[in-house]
Design brief:
The protein is built from ten helices and no strands. With 234 residues, it is mostly helical. The longest helix is centred in the last third of the chain and has 28 residues. The chain is flat. This is TetR family transcriptional regulator.
Length: 234
């Protein structure tokens, strides 16, 4: 008789690929993607490891399928340009990249799969992402940007957003707090008067990775993009 701490093994043939993928995400969220292994996944699911290999030939194959699912999830969440009027392009881009950032918050496995392990992308996943980019570029060209300008606007905002996401991911891993009164002991008040003033009176505004800071950076880029557009259409 199995002890109460032992997971009861499933009957042979009772597992399906969707169950394995769900289990893989659960184990990766718990232990980290680097520590995801076929034996640990089998133990989590209560099956023999050969049942996993029946559907997934290797861990790399499993990671590709996980990346397929992660990219589909992200792409399904992003706003579609066809739902926005041309004159709303700035608000669309703010919504697009804000949604991308929000999708990664507290979703370490999604970030690792989509942004950190791009070698795990399958051809279908790559095409899915490129089609999404193509739709945004087509929308910006319709607005009035030249194709090269549209690409530069999109890539600048994309790189900014991804940097923001990875910064937040790193901070979660290292449990690094934003600047605030606890960090005053690290500041030399005689040589750092501006930081001292900001931390003392405006500590809530010194988080480099908060909602306000993210939107401020996006709108700076959008203001420059608007000037480029004005020069193109004038």
């Amino acid at each position: 008789m199995a002890s109460s701490g032992t997971r009861k093994r499933r009957e042979r043939g009772s597992i399906v690929p969707e169950d394995i993928l769900a289990g893989a995400f659960a184990v990766a969220e718990r232990d980290g993607l680097d520590n995801l292994s076929m034996p640990e996944l089998a133990s989590h699911l209560g099956i023999g490891v050969t049942s996993i290999y029946w559907y997934f030939r290797s861990k790399d194959d499993l990671l590709r399928k996980m990346t397929d699912q992660a990219t589909t999830l992200l792409q399904d969440r992003l706003p579609t340009p066809t739902d926005w009027k041309p004159e709303e392009w700035q608000e669309f881009l703010l919504a697009y990249f804000s949604t991308e950032r929000a999708s990664h918050q507290d979703a370490n496995v999604l970030t690792d799969l989509v942004l950190m392990r791009t070698s795990s992308y399958s051809i279908p996943s790559t095409h899915r992402v490129y089609r999404s980019v193509e739709r945004v570029l087509a929308y910006l060209v319709e607005v009035g940007f030249a194709p090269r300008q549209a690409w530069q606007v999109f890539s600048a905002l994309s790189l900014y957003t991804r940097g923001f996401i990875i910064t937040e991911r790193t901070r979660r891993v290292n449990q690094t707090p934003p600047l605030g009164s606890p960090q005053l002991s690290l500041i030399d008040v005689d040589t750092m008067p501006i930081l001292t003033e900001l931390i003392t009176h405006h500590s809530a505004m010194l988080d480099m990775a908060d909602d306000e800071s993210f939107e401020f950076g996006v709108r700076l880029a959008l203001d420059q993009a608007a000037r480029v557009l004005e020069g193109t259409t004038s």
